[in-house]
Amino acid sequence: DAGVIQSPRHEVTEMGQEVTLRCKPISGHDYLFWYRQTMMRGLELLIYFNNNVPIDDSGMPEDRFSAKMPNASFSTLKIQPSEPRDSAVYFCASTSPRLGGEQFFGPGTRLTVL
Amino acid sequence: SQKIEQNSEALNIQEGKTATLTCNYTNYSPAYLQWYRQDPGRGPVFLLLIRENEKEKRKERLKVTFDTTLKQSLFHITASQPADSATYLCAYLHGSSNTGKLIFGQGTTLQVKP
Questions:
Q1: CB-based contact B19:B13 (threshold 8 Å)
Q2: What is the pLDDT of residues A23-53, one digit of tens each?
């Protein structure tokens, strides 16, 4: 299995631009999570989905952030407009209850907003 | 508010010694607690999960304890090796299910010197 796949691995953009991060979970996993990691705040959950339905989006910072999961094998996290304080590493993770709680993380997308 | 705290200072130990990392949580009584390892530039990797009714869990050179009275988990690596150098994150599951929202600590960086 290829594991959780994220793209792009690195993104540099200018303030005000739209950014779209992509994630392909492990096949057969029905939970998908989006996290953000910064030095100041550590690893924080932004939103998670179960069977493509958003369950908890209380970690989404503000209306500039949106996430979708149109099918079981694809999810996007969009930031519009982006701001310098959005600079962070964004991780996607997936799991299934039959796995006993272990979450499988992707390699992350390092976002820099200038 | 719910908090989970790890020693933010790096832990430096000599090869062959036992490393002990601490995780404390407040204002919540989790049913599950997990430990992850994170190497620079990579996503976290699951190591162990312990349930509230389990005092101790072992996996090879790793041991985790869970003291619900002290609201604390200890993570031990015995016979440590330089390859164990990484950042270790503890996290608890929010809710009674073994799948869902993970609240992470800031992580403790372990450096094992040969």
A1: yes
A2: 999 999 999 999 999 999 999 999 999 999 9
- Token representation of residue B46: 């699951």
Chain A interface, Cβ < 8 Å to B: 4, 31, 33, 42-45, 48, 55-56, 91, 93, 95-97, 100-108
Across the interface, whether the CB atoms of A100 and B98 are under 8 A apart is answered yes
Give strand pairing partners of A71: A74
B39-81 pLDDT, tens digit each: 999 999 999 999 989 989 999 999 999 998 999 999 999 999 9
d(C-alpha A72, C-alpha A57), whole Å? 18
Q: How many residues does chain B have?
A: 114
pLDDT in tens, A42-88: 999 999 999 999 999 999 988 999 999 999 999 999 999 999 999 99
**pLDDT of A1 strictly over 70:** no
Kindly state the tokens that stand for B65. Answer: 């304890």
CA distance B98 to B52: 12
Residues in chain A: 114
Which of B99, B103, B104 best probes binding to A when mutated, by most A CB atoms within 10 angstroms? B99
CA distance A31 to A19: 23
Distance (Å, rounded) from C-alpha A50 to C-alpha A13? 31
d(CA B28, CA A79): 32
Single-letter code of the amino acid located at A52: N
